[in-house]
Amino acid sequence: MPYFDTASAAPLHPVARQALQASLDEGWADPARLYREGRRARLLLDAAREAAAEAVGCRADELVFTPSGTHAVHTGVAGVLAGRRRVGGRLVVSAVEHSSVLQAAQAHEARGGTVALVPVAASGAVAAADYGAALLPGTALACLQSANHEVGTVQPVADVADLCAAAGVPLLVDAAQSLGWGPVEGAWSVLTASAHKWGGPPGVGLLAVRKGVRFSPQGPADERESGRSPGFGNLPAVVAAAASLRAVRADADAEAARLRVLVDRIRRRVVRLVPDVEVVGDADRRLPHLVTFSCLYVDGETLLHELDRAGFSVSSGSSCTSSTLTPSHVLRAMGVLSEGNVRVSLPRGTTAEEVNAFLEVLPGAVAGVRERLGVAEVPAAAPVAESVELDALGLRCPQPVIELARAIGTVPVGGTVTVLSDDEVAGLDVPAWCGMRGHAYLGAAERPVGVAYTVRRLH
Amino acid sequence: MPYFDTASAAPLHPVARQALQASLDEGWADPARLYREGRRARLLLDAAREAAAEAVGCRADELVFTPSGTHAVHTGVAGVLAGRRRVGGRLVVSAVEHSSVLQAAQAHEARGGTVALVPVAASGAVAAADYGAALLPGTALACLQSANHEVGTVQPVADVADLCAAAGVPLLVDAAQSLGWGPVEGAWSVLTASAHKWGGPPGVGLLAVRKGVRFSPQGPADERESGRSPGFGNLPAVVAAAASLRAVRADADAEAARLRVLVDRIRRRVVRLVPDVEVVGDADRRLPHLVTFSCLYVDGETLLHELDRAGFSVSSGSSCTSSTLTPSHVLRAMGVLSEGNVRVSLPRGTTAEEVNAFLEVLPGAVAGVRERLGVAEVPAAAPVAESVELDALGLRCPQPVIELARAIGTVPVGGTVTVLSDDEVAGLDVPAWCGMRGHAYLGAAERPVGVAYTVRRLH
């Protein structure tokens, strides 16, 4: 039963399991105590820190362990912002950061700080020049992920780090998705990561802060972990995290090359096997194991359910799969189709057979969903009017786009269809539909209720 | 090799180990995902929450899991203080709370809040009436531990909870030391605990907030755990924590009765076997497994080292064993001797043989330390002066008290010895010495350098 959502959480690596079990016996005591159980725990902790620091590419005394990647991000962002308060209150982040970074940014805004979002191209990548232009005076901190968690696009971290260094702004790199594949290149100042993304256990994040970065931990004081991560540490998990990071790094290049072939196959085949599909994310500068595509006229939640029934676990950035009924902020920032979105992230060891099986199941799953939604080939009807307006109020994704696809044949080439919708996803998916189907998107206009999206038929 | 510091961290309970290993296979996925691995994780999480809530005595939707007891305390204190900001900024805590509570209180003060410390008796217990008197208008929150972590004294939580309810103030109970022995009685509002104190794994704290308590989580938003504990959860550890809590509760009464006999033996025997020793903490209302005593004329760190060499792992609240070279704030608040302090906290399953072996080793270890410090029976010398002043500047605990003991024979009955010391511990240990040796402590006076402590010889 293939699990293809390693970008959410990876199954435990065998080395992590082994290290965890061994350190349950050796590493339960308080490493701050001087008796033998404490000294033994201290030795384990020191060794884990050395190993993790080596993998990160920093000094051991620059690295602390936190309870999660989210804690590392929250602590890192708040610590630098407070440490550089005198410089100013401006925080620069890319528009496609992980929610933990964006939530830390929102908390900063709520405390009176300012946040600048650097936009991304349709590939999901920031342009280094755009990022550099955002580094205005008063910028206390800049944040950029090493690679995007939803579409796999690798960010130009080294270039942005150089611009940050030139501007005297520390750069925090969220390396959660990439650290298992290799160290982050470039002159970063702060780095965060999460062990359960590389096959380590849950309960461990990494926070590295380069010497010389002004850092002022927030919240109640605590002696542990250089005052940067309060609470009794989770030593068995820390040991397992460090051991598994070392293990996955040992064959990272070979495994990346292998998975890249499988992901390439998905990228190539999915557009041939499934009509009206868009593969999103950068085609070249990307994570080796992750591919994301979106299917027109498909309800993401139903598609995930169908794939789950067929034995495949994947995730989605479609609005219908989110608790807030909004599409992924990443897809939105990229301006790409969000309906019928599927993210496939292959765990290490995924076989070609598993990927082939997925590609066999996928077309039928998509077709089944479309059939249930009543999407058929639009009959070549004679146009009925120069312009048509559809009332799609109350309809949820993907219905407004399905209605649009049905209506486009009712106007002549050059005619317009206007879709009135109160589903905010339509603002993303109607333009994306136009791009995919070769029609012209003329824009959106607010109405008393909903928004009117107008499309010109081009062929 | 007996480990007698379970109040710091308990070795992993076999049930915790078993549950942890089982849930490494079943519980690594994101419980928020809808595919089968996510649903399986969600079932485990829900079951763990039900089990833990039942042990705590709350509803499952009142309980969240945090990465540690410290996180639970920090989140609980900050959340109630923010939720009740309109009521006022006063926080009431006992003087002997765990450092996580006191650090949260310091952070509150640093943000402009006020903190009232409720004093304790020499037993370490607060008087409910004192606590009630501190609940002035404008009190947003009151905190009281269920039992003290250093001396084992059980606090009058139910009485204080009634007073808090009458005053309309929510009571946060830090139940870290007692939850494995039984639920906290009384009408508490918020409860915190830590799994590794009862034999659960590290990496899990509990935070229960009764419905109706105004609670506003601080820090960046996060959907997980009702918005009260950010970051990807540590599900295998959570499952192990809940399973082991249920397991230790099953035989808690029997095991408590058994350990109480062993602790009683230590309490009785230690004062007979070791000269000049003071057992501290309430003799009756106390945790079943914990006993603390202090030895005059002994350096705590050296004593711990000697006991460790003999195979016994214990901890100490002496100043010389702390990184800040200050004595435990608990011993200080109790006004009891802090030098040569030893805390013995027995893990479940401790045998009478292990306790007997400790009692065999202890007198020699103490005598050895005293010998090395040059403490011998004071020769009965003729008094040399009515009053003597000792310059003990620069000497560290236990030396000032040793000098005092040597000098008391050099004045006649009714004469005085004044010790000039710049070791702040002397303020605690000189009066304690007087109480133990039957002399009169006349008080302290600031000098340009150091403090002068004066003692009248009574016999």
Give a structural overview.
- The structure is a homodimer of 459-residue chains.
- Chain A is α/β, with parallel strands linked by helices and 459 residues long.
- The first copy, chain A, folds into 3 domains: 237 residues, Type I PLP-dependent aspartate aminotransferase-like (Major domain) (Aspartate Aminotransferase, domain 2, 3-Layer(aba) Sandwich), CATH 3.40.640; 121 residues, Aspartate Aminotransferase, domain 1; 70 residues, Translation Initiation Factor IF3 (2-Layer Sandwich), CATH 3.30.110.
- The longest helix of chain A is centred in the middle third of the chain and has 22 residues.
- The two termini of chain A are 44 Å apart.
- The mean pLDDT of chain A is 95.
- Chains A and B meet through helix 1, helix 2, helix 3, helix 4 and helix 7 of A and helix 1, helix 2, helix 3, helix 4 and helix 7 of B.
Ends distance of chain A: 44 Å
Give the integer mean of the pLDDT values of chain A: 95
Question: Considering DSSP H and I runs of 4 or more, what fraction of the residues of chain A is helical?
Answer: 25-40%
Provide the β-strand percentage band of chain A.
15-25%
The CATH architecture assignment of the largest domain in chain A turns out to be 3-Layer(aba) Sandwich
| CATH topology call of the largest domain in chain A | Aspartate Aminotransferase, domain 2
Number of domains of chain A: 3
Q: What is the CATH superfamily classification of the largest domain in chain A?
A: Type I PLP-dependent aspartate aminotransferase-like (Major domain)
Protein chain pair with the most extensive contact, residues per chain: A-B, 63 and 64 residues
Q: Within the largest sheet of chain A, what's the order of strands? A: 1-7-6-5-4-2-3
State the total count of DSSP E strands of chain A. Answer: 14
Structure annotation, total helices of chain A: 13
Q: Radius of gyration of chain A, Cα only, in angstroms?
A: 24 Å
**Major sheet of chain A: size, sense and barrel closure?**
7 strands, mixed
Query: What oligomeric arrangement do these chains adopt?
Result: homodimer
Low-confidence stretches of chain A: none
| CATH top level label of the largest domain in chain A | Alpha Beta
Outline of chain A: globular
Counting helices, strands and paired strands, the structural category of chain A is: alpha/beta
How are helices and strands ordered from N to C of chain A?
HHEHEHEHEHEEEHHEEHHEHEHEHEE
